[in-house]
Amino acid sequence: MTTEQQTTEQQGPFRSYPWPLERLRDALRCIRLKRVKIRGPAQFSHGSSISFAKGADVRSPHSVELGHHISFGKNFTCEVDVRVGSHVLVSSNVSFVGRDHPFDDPAVTVYEAARLDDTVIEIGSDVLIGFGTIVVGPAKIGDGCIVGAGSVVVGDLPPSTICVGVPAKPVRQRYPDIMR
């Protein structure tokens, strides 16, 4: 294994900085995580190595469950309950929202209707969600799935696929040479 591979393996998805800046970056990550936990729901559980970039806004009504080694990019927004596996990258400007405004009663305006808050978004392990993606729950993104930038997820996405578009649909297998 080369020195570059070892450094990448230790760093994960993050850039390498001189050690004083590394300590500062680690401290900022810790502060951001605590900020999200304080403002977030009462049931907030997480594993190790969780990172929220600037502008994270987590307003889940009931619970957030995060595995290990997860990174959320700048301006991440979450307004639903969420369960995330391990080894997940969520790019910048990604939103998790729900179908939470009933609009089927003509006697009640959308503004006056009571908000529904039972939406859950489930993200598997080894997942990448691209820049600017909107996930409208309820939805489940399978293990090993890659969601392309700018996609809108409105339903379940199968494991080990690359999905893109509005609405997001599988375009190919992530590992085409592996027999299933």
Topology:
Blueprint: H1 3-11, H2 19-39, E1 43-46, E2 50-52, E3 57-58, E4 63-66, E5 70-72, E6 77-78, E7 81-84, E8 88-90, E9 95-98, E10 120-123, E11 127-129, E12 134-137, E13 139-141, E14 146-147, E15 152-153, E16 161-164, E17 169-173
Parallel strand pairs: 1-4, 2-5, 3-6, 4-7, 5-8, 6-9, 7-10, 8-11, 9-12, 10-13, 11-14, 12-15, 14-16
Antiparallel strand pairs: 16-17
Write up this protein.
The protein is of the alpha/beta class and 180 residues long. The chain has a single domain (16-172), classed as UDP N-Acetylglucosamine Acyltransferase, domain 1. It is 17% helix and 31% strand. It has 2 helices and 17 strands. It has helices at residues 3-11, 19-39; strands at 43-46, 50-52, 57-58, 63-66, 70-72, 77-78, 81-84, 88-90, 95-98, 120-123, 127-129, 134-137, 139-141, 146-147, 152-153, 161-164, 169-173. The strands form 3 sheets. The protein has a 7-stranded mixed beta sheet. A hairpin with a 4-residue loop joins strand 16 (161-164) and strand 17 (169-173). It is globular. 27% of the residues are buried. Residues 1-9 have low confidence and may be disordered.
Summarize the structure.
By secondary structure, the protein is an alpha/beta fold. 17% of the residues lie in helices and 31% in strands. A hairpin with a 4-residue loop joins strand 16 (161-164) and strand 17.
